[in-house]
Amino acid sequence: MWQKNLKSFLNHLLKSKLYTSVTLLGFTISLTFVILLSVYIKHETSVNALQEKKDRIYRLINEFEAGYAPPIGLWLQNEFPEIESYTRIYNNTGTLITPDNTKLKINYLLADSTFFDIFSFKLLDGNKETALKSRNAVVLSQEFANRVFGQETPLYKQITIDEIECVVYGVVEDISKKSNFNACDAIINFRSQADFWGWPGLLTSMGNSSFGLYFLAEPNTDLPAKAPQVLALFKKDFWMYQDDRVNTVVFEPLSDNYFSPIRGRGIQQNNKTLISVLFAIVILILVLAIINYMNLTIAQSGARVKGIAIKKLLGSSRKELVIQHVIESMILCFAAFLLAVLASSLAEPLFNGLLNTELNLAKEFTNSAILLSLVFVVTVGLVSGIIPALIITRIHAVQVIKGAYRRKSKSTYSKILIGFQYMVVIVLIVATITISRQTDFMQNHQLGFNIRNIVWLDNNIKPVEMEGFRNVLLTIPGVKRVSFVAGSPLDAGNNQSFIFNEKPVSFQVFKVDSSFFPMMEMEITPTGAAYSKKGIWLNKKTVDELGLDSLPTSFQSYKGKDAVLGIVENFYFESLHRKIGLAMIRQLNDEDEAWQILVQIEGSAIYATLDKVKKAYAEFTHDLPFDYGFFDDTVESWYEGEKRTTTIVSYFTILSIVISIMGIFAMSVFYNQQKIKEIGIRKVNGASVLEIVQMLNMDFVKWVAIAFVVACPIAYYAMNRWLQNFPYRITMSWWYFALAGIFALSIALITVSWQTYRAAHRNPVEALRYE
Question: Which of 751, 711, 695, 657 has its CA nearest to residue 285?
Fold first, then answer.
C-alpha cells in the first residue's frame, strides 16, 4: 500500500510544478540558513568548552572592568584556601629581534607560570610545568616559531623583545582555537612586564589596575560564594574600592567570559544579543517556510481531495490518511535538507566573511550531529504536515462527490498565515531601517575632534630624537603637522581616579604637545590664567558635572593645584558606545613617554607622503616594524559590530521577503483558480477588468493591512529596547513604519496583481465552460 501512496505523491509533485518548486525551494533556503546559523551558534556557545578545568576557572571582575593590580592574586590566594592558583593576564605588542638581527612585530600575552596548569593548551615542544618558570621565559606559537626559526627547533634559543633578552622554553598550539584568548605570537612570563615598562616596583604596586586576573578554584569548593568577603576586604584595604569608586566583586565563571559585558585584556568576546537575534531570525525564517508549505498544501488540496474521498469510501481511516500526509511532508523536508547541505557548503565562505568566523561544516557532521539532523528533519516534517493533514482529511467523502468541498475550502486559514508572514517582513524592514540609521548616526556624528587625513604611528623613537624626527617629517611635502601624545581620543588615554570635594571622580587623562590642539581642531575657550608648563585643560563636561565656574583658572587634581589654561568643548573617547566623561589634558614634558606619533597629511598624494614618512621612521628606528593606521579607519572600526548586524538583518529581511513572495505568488494562483466561475459570472454581468482585479486583490490587501497594524507595536517595542543599549541614539520616526508598510503592500500587490490581471482577462465563456 505504501508503494502506491508514494507513487501517487510523486505523480502529484510532478503535476503540480509550482507547488513543488515553491515548497522545495522555500524549505531549502530556510534550512540552508538553519544549518549555517546553527553551526555558528553552537560554535559561539561552546567557546572554552575544551578547557578541562573550565568549571573551576573564574575571572575577577567588577561593575566597570576586569582590571586589577599585580599583587591582588597572591593576596587573595593567601586569604582564601578555596583558591588553588591564579594567573595575571596582559597583552601587548613589541619588536622582536632574532639571532640573525631580523626585526619583527610581535603580539604577545603576559601570563604567570601557572597559565598552562590552569588552561588546557597543548605544548608542541617543551614542558608546560617549567615553560614559564623563568622570569625571561617565552613560549612561541607554532606559526610564529616556524616564521622565525623555520625547521630548526626554537627551544633554548635567545631572542630580544623590546630590548629585553628572553629565552624560548616552548612552542604552543594556537590558543584562540580552544578558548576566547586572542591569537598571539608568544606567551611571556608576567614578571617581565616590570622590565618592559622599566618599573621595578610594578609587581608589588597597587596603583595600576590594568591587568586581567584568573583564578583556579580548589575542587569541590564554591569560590563565587566568597565574593562578599573579598568585597569587604577590598573596601577596607584596596584604594580602588574605597570612597565608593567600585562597589562589586564577581568571580565570573569561564563559561560566561565570552559573552560577558565586561571587556577584558587579551581576550575576544561576542555580543549575546547578536546570538539571540540570529537564533530568533533562524526560527522566523523556518516558520515562514513552514507557513508556505501549509498554505500551499491546503490551497492545492482540491487537486487531491477526490483521491482522499475515494480512499475514505474504500475504508481508509482518517488516522491513516493523516499519517500518509505527514510522511509526505517528511519526504519533502528530507529532500530539501539534502539540497540545503549542498547549498550550505557553497555558502560557507560568504557566511564566514559576513560573521567574521571560521566555520568548517565538514567537521561538524559527526554521528551525533547526523542523528540530531534526522530528528530535526522529522520534527519539521511533522510540524509542517500535521495541520494541513488534519484540515484536508476532515472533509466528508459524500460532500466531495457532491462538489461541496470547494465552497468550504475558502477558509481564512491561509490568509491568516500570509498575514503572519507579512507581519514578520514589516518587523524586519523596520529593524533594518532602525539599525542602519543608528549605525549611520554613530559613524557620522560630530566627535569633537578632526579625523581627516591623520595617521597614528606607534612611537619607537628615542626621547632624545623626537624633535629631530618631527623636524625631518615636517620637511616632507604633504606633512602638515606632527604631534607626540600619550593618549588620544582613539584610545581614551589613561584613567585617573581621585577625591574632589570629598567625592570620588574619574578622569581620562591625555598628555599632548603643542601641535595636538590645532591638529585635532578642538574648540578651546581660554580661561585667562597665566601660562604654566604644568597648566591643564578640562573639558566642558568637567565644568558642568563638578559645578565649577564657567571659566575656572585653577583645579585641585591628583597632582595638586593646577592652572587651568582653557576649557575644551566636549569630545568623545573611543566611541559613541560610551558616554562622554570627565577629561583632563596635560602637557607632554621631557619625562613623559609618548605612546604615539600623530601625523597630519594634506594634499592628494596621501600614500606617497606616507611612504616617505615610513622611510624616515625606518632610519630613526633602525628598521623597526612600521605600525600605523588612519584616524577615520579606526573610528569606522568602532562600529563594525553594528555594521555587521545591519548586514545580517538586511540579508534575512531580503530572504524573508523572497520566501513571502514565493508563498503569496503561489497562493494567488490557487486562489484565482478557485475564483474562475465567479470571475466569469461577474464579467458576463458587465464587471470591468479593473473591478475584478480590485476584488481579487482586496483579500490580500486586507491581511497585509492587519499585519501592518500588528507589526508596528512589536517593531517599535523591539527596536526601542535595542536602542536603549546606546547612550547616544536616534529617535524612531513614523516614516520607518510607513515605509515598511508601503513596501510590504507594494510587494504583495505586485506579486498578486500579475496573476489577478491574467485571471480577469480570461474569456468568461471559457471560464464558465471549465466549471
Answer: 657
